[in-house]
């Protein structure tokens, strides 16, 4: 994984108001690559919980952006109920949204692609997002790129992002830091 002492890892600087974005953690893990993903999710779950707790305690918006798995007639409570009844509810329950969390449905990899997220962030005056969730080399990477091109500051909570392939995840973290100026921070050090 990307070294803690690499440039861009946790650089402090003036940041606009922030939000924690929890990406695709409401998951039933009933997809072809679930066997690759589940072990990594188990490993990062405590750090995701730490990031969510820190954001909530700090009064920072927590926004869940999640695939709807083709359930276009459902809302987030139905999606949550479905995954909590699945075989991997133990990976969802500790990081489930609370009543104050905001929720945005996405259909593709990026949290911004044809979603109202950009509008929501602007309405809330948020110019910095911290990303946690899954998967580092897919949805996290594409979302960080889309945030970057929208001039939104990005932090990736590097110990709170799950992956399918460790080598690709490491390369994705490096790309986000080097090419997009993303900060890489641990959940315990997360600051908004």
TrEMBL record:
Per UniProt, residues of the Isochorismatase-like domain are 19-184
Q: Which GO terms describe its molecular function?
A: hydrolase activity
Which keywords accompany this UniProt record? Hydrolase
Tell me the InterPro entries matching this sequence.
Isochorismatase-like_dom, Isochorismatase-like_hydrls, Isochorismatase-like_sf
- Do the record's keywords include Hydrolase? yes
Entry keyword Acetylation: no
Q: Which Pfam families match?
A: Isochorismatase
Query: What is the protein name stated in its UniProt record?
Result: Nicotinamidase-related amidase
């Amino acid at each position: 994984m990307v070294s803690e002492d690499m440039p861009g890892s946790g650089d402090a600087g003036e940041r606009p108001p922030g939000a924690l974005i929890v990406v695709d953690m409401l998951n039933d893990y009933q997809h072809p690559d679930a066997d690759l993903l589940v072990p990594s999710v188990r490993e990062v779950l405590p750090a995701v919980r730490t990031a969510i707790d820190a954001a909530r305690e700090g009064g920072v918006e927590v926004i869940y952006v999640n695939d709807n798995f083709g359930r276009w007639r459902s809302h987030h409570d139905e999606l949550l109920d479905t995954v909590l009844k699945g075989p991997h509810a133990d990976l969802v329950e500790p990081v489930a949204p609370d009543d104050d969390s905001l929720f945005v449905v996405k259909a593709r990899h990026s949290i911004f692609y044809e979603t109202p997220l950009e509008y929501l962030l602007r309405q809330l005056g948020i110019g910095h997002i911290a990303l946690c969730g899954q998967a580092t080399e897919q949805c996290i990477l594409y979302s960080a790129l889309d945030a970057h091109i929208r001039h939104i500051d990005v932090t990736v909570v590097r110990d709170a992002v799950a992956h399918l392939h460790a080598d690709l995840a490491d390369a994705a973290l490096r790309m986000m830091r080097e090419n997009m100026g993303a900060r890489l921070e641990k959940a315990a050090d997360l600051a908004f």
